[in-house]
Amino acid sequence: MTSDVDDSDSLRSEAVDWLVRINAAPHDTAARAGLDAWLASSEANRRAYRSVERVWTLSGNSPSAALSSSHKVVDLSRVRRTRRAWGLAAAGLAACVALWFFPSLKLHFQADHLTGVAELRELTLEDGSVVHLDAASAIAVRYDKGRREVELLAGQAFFKVVSARDRPFVVTAGNVAVTVKGTAFDVGSFRDGVSVAVQSGTVEVLVSGGERNVLSTLLRGERMVVDREGAFARSQVSPEDVASWREHRLVVDGATLGEVVDELGRHHRGVIVVSDRSLADRRITGVFDLRRPLEALQTVARTQHGSVLEISPYLTIVSSSKP
Q1: Same domain, 160 and 272
Q2: DSSP three-state, residue 299
Q3: Which of 201, 222, 239 represents a domain boundary (last residue)?
Q4: Given 119, 182, 239, 267, which residue has the most CB atoms within 10 angstroms?
């Protein structure tokens, strides 16, 4: 029985690898030929691929269209490649996989500083201000004589700003600009919007949206969340919980499960997919250890009667448990 389970897990892992390869390089004929041969070699392979592809489609992606009746017969001439051609295909595949799992090439060009999965970093800027970068985060720094500007390109950052009366410090993220002279605060850029939380001092938050701009002042212990349309909500937050990720703690109060998964994903070397939209929208409150993202994910799922399936080191599925 154990052997059957191990074989099944192994096949799913292979199927995930093939799915990632094909979707990363849909026009790579060498990779497609390799998949054709793998599918044709056994019915078990085809079942594993169909299973993984169903999960992929449920997560909102388009089917890879790798399986069809034509795959019952394989053109062996497509499989026969020269060693040099296969070497080039492998090199191309390695590049695609690298781009799949690491920050985009565009982000690398834009960013002055960025972090990888589960990596935290502390930076001191030229004026002495300190920036803490969360995992999978990136910033671009632009300083001139009259203004200090940092653009948050991805993820989260905590700022301890050195006061400069005639030289304001501005952090931009999407349609939000945060202006300070000397304070400590956190800014996060997420799929659904931007958050700003103040640990000490005062910040001004300018929200640009549609035909009007809104300027708000946040004090110590206040938080603002702004969605992509410019709508915002304010709330209170304990100052010691601002940027708790610096201590490898994820503190959430009424966040959606999808938002929690996004944050845990910054600390996990693989893709986490929530297959059920209604599950992703459920609210979560708690404190979780970012050093153990899978354990935290399992805890979150259990509180919402969900389940976690680790298909491979590269893909984890969160879904509603069957009644």
Answers
A1: no
A2: helix
A3: 239
A4: 267
Specify whether 19 is located in the same domain as 138. no
**CATH number, position 154:** 2.60.120.1440
Provide DSSP, 10-64.
HHHHHHHHHHHHHHH-TT-HHHHHHHHHHHHT-HHHHHHHHHHHHHHHHTTPPP-
Residue 59 buriedness (CB in 10 A; 0-12 / 13-18 / 19+): middle
Name residue 215's amino acid.
L
Phi first, then psi, for residue 246 (nearest 5°) are -65, -25
Structurally, how many domains does the chain consist of?
A: 3
SS3 177: strand
- For 171, the domain range is 107-239
Tokens linked to 58: 């449920």
Write out pLDDT tens, residues 91-149.
444 444 444 444 456 677 889 999 999 999 999 999 999 999 999 999 999 999 889 99
Q: Which pLDDT score is estimated for 105?
A: 62
- Whether residue 231 is found in the same domain as residue 273: no
